[in-house]
Amino acid sequence: MLRRNRGTRNREFSVIPDEPLKRVVVCLLAVCCIAANASAQELPVRINPRRAYGYLEEICRIGPRVSGTEGMLLQQQLIIEHFRKLGGDVRAQRFNVAHPQTGNPVRMTNLVVSWNPTARDRVLLCCHYDTRPFPDRDRFRPKGKFIGANDGASGVALFMEMAHHMKSIQPRYGVDFIFFDGEELVYQQGDKYFLGSEYFSKWYRDTPPKNFRYVCGVLVDMIADKQLAIYVEKNSLNMAPNVTRSVWATAKRMGVKEFVGEPKYEVRDDHLALNEIAKIPTCDIIDFDYPYWHTTRDTASACSAASLSKVGRVLLQWLTEVPIKPPASGS
Ligand code: ZN
């Protein structure tokens, strides 16, 4: 994926106002206390596969969710209301990019949902939530409607389900769910990928937050495939070996065989910016063997409740362990 630089500006986090999507630009972190209820070590929680899949369907019903479009705004509203209701602290990081075709400004929004927001050492779980403008790998309808059930909605649905359990598990660190915008505002070869994760990573590098730091991160992408097989991703193994191994070790111990403990693909994804720019060791959980990738057939019917559930179980368990130490020097 080739990249061209496009202008980004205005660094800020905004506290989301009570009425979703009314924009108030205020700097920095809203801190509200969330009591993390104690619970047992070995996951007494039960991911609800049908509910998780229901979220995926709900997101898909919005239609395409391309950065800067009405569909994306509706999705943001859904996300903000959902996580607020479940006690997450929701913030937005907004910035503009030039539209790759017209050059007009496109409003971009990374959303951050924090659990135990006062914890200094934090882990981030992230996904992209925008959808590609067109299903350009579709042989018959490359200009058709792209729903992005697996490539777009699956990560969001997973986090929506995990949110039900965040207060009943005891994560080792504070946890942030981050929804990156602009992963693929891509119309043609040469258009830039990873806009949201790059913006976020540069913000983290250039203005390190005073009251928290990220210990490590996990990216999920395309994790709802019916034929789930998540091989170790090569860039993850190179750049974040400990994080990568620890996630697959957790899956192995839990008997979740869909996490295959050998490398297969080398994938360029949002985790690159987190590793290379923000220096947050981050692995990518991605099932790259998805026949409907970037086609009109990437719909809810190609996805599976059981797959979402398996990834959710592993991640909830992993959050309670995270055998990674904070960086030696504080930021
Ligand atoms: Zn994609």
Distance between the termini: 32 Å
Q: Pick out the low-confidence regions.
A: 1-12, 18-40
Shape: globular
- CATH H-level name... which superfamily? Zn peptidases
Number of domains: 1
The description of the largest β-sheet is: 7 strands, mixed
Q: Count the E strands.
A: 9
Into which percentage range does the β-strand content fall? 15-25%
CATH topology: Aminopeptidase
Radius of gyration: 18 Å
How many separate helices?
Answer: 8
Average pLDDT number: 89
Order of helices and strands: EHHEEEHEHEEHHEHEH
Bound small-molecule species: zinc ion
In the CATH hierarchy, the architecture is: 3-Layer(aba) Sandwich
What does this structure look like?
The chain is of the alpha/beta class and 331 residues long. The chain has a single domain, classed as Aminopeptidase (3-Layer(aba) Sandwich). It is 30% helix and 18% strand. Strands 1-2-3-5-4-6-9 form a seven-stranded mixed β-sheet. The chain starts with 12 loop residues before the first strand and ends in a 10-residue tail after the last helix. The protein binds zinc ion. The site of zinc ion has 4 residues, from loops. Zinc ion binds at residues 132, 151, 184, 294.
Topology:
Layout: E1 13-15, H1 49-62, H2 70-85, E2 89-98, E3 105-115, E4 121-128, H3 149-162, E5 174-180, H4 195-206, E6 213-221, E7 230-232, H5 234-239, H6 241-254, E8 259-263, H7 271-276, E9 282-286, H8 305-321
Bound molecules: zinc ion (ZN).
